[in-house]
Amino acid sequence: MNFRDLNKILVIKLRQLGDVLLTVPVFRALREHFPHAHIAALVNSGTEGMLAGNPLLDEIIVLNRKNRGVGKLQKWRNELTFLRDIRRSRFDLTVDLSSGDRAAIMSFLSGARYRIGTDLCRVGFWGKPHLYTHLATNDGSRHIVLQNLNVVGQFSITTDNARVDFFIPPAALGFVNDLFCQRCFRDSDIIIHVHPTSAWLFKCWRDEAMAELIHWLLDQGIKVILTSAPNVKELSKAKAIVSAIPSSAALDANLINLCGQTDVDQLAAISGAARLFFGVDSMPMHLAAAVGTPVLALFGPSILHRWAPWSEAMLQITSDSDYQRVYRNGAYHLGIHTVIQRDWECVPCRRDGCDGSKRSRCLEDITVEEVKKMILKTIPS
Prior knowledge:
Elements: E1 8-13, H1 17-21, H2 24-33, E2 38-44, E3 59-63, H3 72-88, E4 93-96, H4 101-109, E5 114-118, E6 134-136, H5 144-153, H6 170-182, E7 191-195, H7 207-219, E8 223-226, H8 232-243, H9 249-252, E9 255-257, H10 264-273, E10 276-280, H11 283-290, E11 295-298, H12 304-307, H13 320-325, E12 327-328, E13 331-334, E14 337-340, H14 361-364, H15 368-378
Parallel strand pairs: 1-2, 1-4, 2-3, 4-5, 5-6, 7-8, 7-10, 8-9, 10-11, 11-14
Antiparallel strand pairs: 12-13, 13-14
Helix pairs in contact: 2-5, 6-10, 7-8
């Protein structure tokens, strides 16, 4: 497919933090094919940090969907003003990686000559597919990074570099450096970044198991930096884990508890300074992978082939037999990353815990001992 005279390109991803981060290779494909074009991203407010500082983009447009205290009339005015500004930007091509109704309408009203979407857009209001000029078929059997690349790849916009990058700003690097200096950490210290929480509780391991594992790490002389999101649900879970860790002067010296105290940039800097990231299926897991830190993740009902920590080793995994090939001793070995997930008939179920309980038996079945063994195998020496 030959897209001619493309001066301005808009990529739309109105999803969550991790979803936005995993679009990076699409921007690389566009930049390689249209090196002189102005390339912009349209994302939800609060997710723009995933792309900040990335030289593949020229502009990040932020949609503010938080309208608390704003009347319906003013809300519509704000929406119309935003759409008018998008149209005035005169984009030649839009690439909708969201597949939602709002993104489809924005793509159409942008006035772009070429509008790429996926056949996932058939879910939604009647006639929605007709808002696009080009529809890509979706391959849900592959990783979300490859699904994103496939949207533009079907129209000959490809790249040989599927790396997901995150650019850590100097201020965040300075934050971590100061932190390590204050705690007298040495270059020879083994540091593990542990992020035990997720916004979805059914993705989390047992509190007592996480506490036991952290206690073991500290007892081994390993430095642990513990983080969580600042929202009430995750912070409450993190506090329950910390309260279950036995305390002593020696152990406390090895633990830095930053739960609820870090922003995205600082999370990335912490992961970048660590030998290993340990956690569950969450945005910080994807962030750690993006800064090149080996990941050990626990998966429950999540679909591994879509949401595993990204490694270009995933390019070679195209079938169920490929996944079985990399499954050894209860874990999937994906390049520098490792995912422990039960090989049960019901996994992955994508459910909100077993029987709606918010607790996943496939996660709770994972033992502390098997995680210990995997950590000892995966920590780079």
